[in-house]
Amino acid sequence: MQSDRIFGLVVLFVALAFMASATQIQSSFLADPVGPRAFPLMIGAVAVLSSLVMIFRPDPNPQWPTLPAWTALLVALAVLVGYAFALKPLGFIIPTAIAASVISFQISPRLLSAVLAGCGLSVGLFILFKFILDLGLVAFPSQFTGGG
Amino acid sequence: MDIFSNLALGFSIALSPYTLMLAVAGCFLGTIIGALPGLGPSNGVAILIPITFTLGLDATSALVLMTSVYYGAMYGGRISSILLNIPGDEPALMTTLDGYPMAKGGRAGDALVLSGVASFVGALLATIGLMMLAPLLARVAFLFGPAEYFALYLLAFCTLGGMASSNQAKAAIASCIGLAIAMIGVDNNSGMPRLTGGSLHLMDGVDFLVAIVGLFAVTEVFSFIESKGKSSSLGVKLDKVTIPWKDIFETKWTMLRASGIGFIAGILPGAGASLGSFLAYMSEKSIAGKDGGFGTGVPKGIAAPEAGNNSAAGGALVPMLTLGVPGSGTTAVLLALLMTLNITPGPTLFTDRPEVVWGLIASLLIANVVLLLMNVPMVKIFVRVLSVPAWILLPGVTMISFVGIYSLSGSYFDLLLMIGFGALGFFLRKLEIPTVPVILGILLGGNMEDALRRAMVLSDGDASYLFSSPIAIGLWIAAVLGFVAPMFLRRILKKPERVAD
């Protein structure tokens, strides 16, 4: 009940904000009868209606993760975000090994196997992508290898 | 005959040693992907699209490779359905109903081979149906103007929403999320930026591949972290694999009927493979009656959903290729693939680029034969794949997704977006909001708006133009029915529960 209501409220507010920002869209001299605002406004309206249905006729609550599971999910999320930022400046191998180890550890909490899985995946995937599939990946940051 | 000369053209493209090699490799890879617990056709194909794109294959080769992977994943999916009771994707759910009991009864090998043959029959008949029907529909599709296309897109959202969720409001919200995301970026008509919040990263809009990989693959990773990968243990032993000729022979009519039902279900825009396997299973169950023993591990209970499922997958290609409207999650992913390769599906595809269409059809036929030949003798190898532990598999999936998206644009922003979609997908899944309409919205949102605006330009702003032709009116009625009817049918057609251990 509550989950659907809360999500319905979130959708309602996002949809209203979406419609509000849609009214701010600039038209240009290339005018057509519908214009750039109408379709986003229609989508917003449908979303508002649906969110009201969700608020007033909610389904039973889903089973939410337990607190430890939430922690694991947040850790994984944080690691992935960090990984996204690290991939370019730090090269492929080191960030991938760390991120893959952490994800592996969150699924099955055994340190040694997680680290091994992370390192193995990192090196294995690098070889696969770089040498077999010929994608442009950088193994290490340029400071390590002393060149550009 | 037109069909034969076209088919000859297709085979002349698809039978070159290089493309044949791609087909075999794709089938092998696809079966493994499908067999891996937690990866199904849609997320398996999704994570491979960016990588295939970066490889720089030409359109036909990429198409052959990815359709082989797609068909392979459909084949492989049944392995985890039967042996682990874990359906790789929604349509495979029906296969678990009789497949898992049969495997537990010590006939795992028979169940695998039988389902392989049923898949082959379903896919083969559907491909033949596709060859006959698609050119006809392509001719009809020439009659479609912007008003008809707008109604057609609406129909796809309505039927998909109606089928995919048990709550219409939630399906509608999912479609709106997708459509709203599609609006972000520079407006095609006026050239002005819309809803970017001033961010330069969003000026080009949100790449649908980022959304697909996020919603399918990253969400899967989050779900596995939540469940700690508990569900993946091999409970059934597979002994010698022999070909159960008797079962295959006895289920021949079941396979044919199920293929027919599946194909028709697949053609309906938005309905797709889930409906195909569901209807095929339910109709065979009612034909067999109470004494049929459906649900206890009977051969017909395996043959029907597998033939229906694969046939629907072929049928779903009909609206996808001729009208550009996908019928299911996996065909949405295939549409994304075509769009990535700069191929616009639609009636003109058949006249302008016959080599793509018929090359695709020929490669479907080839993939199908390769899969049958590969799956019977090599099924033991694929079964071994099932025991890949989640703590190696899921980090691997994550990293492949990251590399794929990263190699598309080289920007951290797309990676962050992908993670965001993964988190969104996790919440949506928890709240039982289907994610496929989100994808469909992102893929079709731009086209849908264009259709509406072009229709309004033609009619000079008169909204009644949208209902002015018989085709358009028919589509509007079908759309309303497709959205409303499941609410009432749901009580009659209750989905069977999963088999519990």
Layout of secondary structure:
The complex is a heterodimer of chains A (148) and B (501).
Chain A: H1 2-23, H2 38-56, H3 67-90, H4 93-107, H5 111-132, H6 142-145
Helix pairs in contact in A: 1-2, 3-4, 4-5
Chain B: H1 2-14, H2 17-35, H3 41-55, H4 59-84, H5 93-141, H6 146-164, H7 168-183, E1 185-186, E2 193-194, H8 208-227, H9 245-250, H10 252-267, H11 272-288, H12 299-315, H13 317-323, H14 329-340, H15 347-352, H16 354-385, H17 390-409, H18 412-430, H19 436-459, H20 470-492
Antiparallel strand pairs in B: 1-2
Helix pairs in contact in B: 1-16, 2-4, 2-16, 3-4, 3-8, 3-14, 3-17, 4-5, 4-14, 4-16, 5-10, 5-12, 5-13, 5-16, 6-7, 6-19, 6-20, 7-19, 8-17, 8-18, 10-11, 10-12, 11-12, 14-19, 17-18
Polypeptide structure, described:
The complex is a heterodimer of chains A (about 150) and B (about 500). Chain A has about 150 residues and is mainly alpha-helical. Helices cover about 70% and strands about 0% of the residues of chain A. Chain A has 2 domains: about 1-55; about 65-140. In chain A, helix 3 runs antiparallel to helix 4 and helix 4 crosses helix 5 (about 110-130). In chain A, about 30% of the residues are buried. Chain B is mainly alpha-helical. Chain B has one domain. Chain B contains 20 helices and 2 strands. The radius of gyration of chain B is 22 Å and the shape is globular. Classes of the chains: A mainly alpha (about 150), B mainly alpha (about 500).
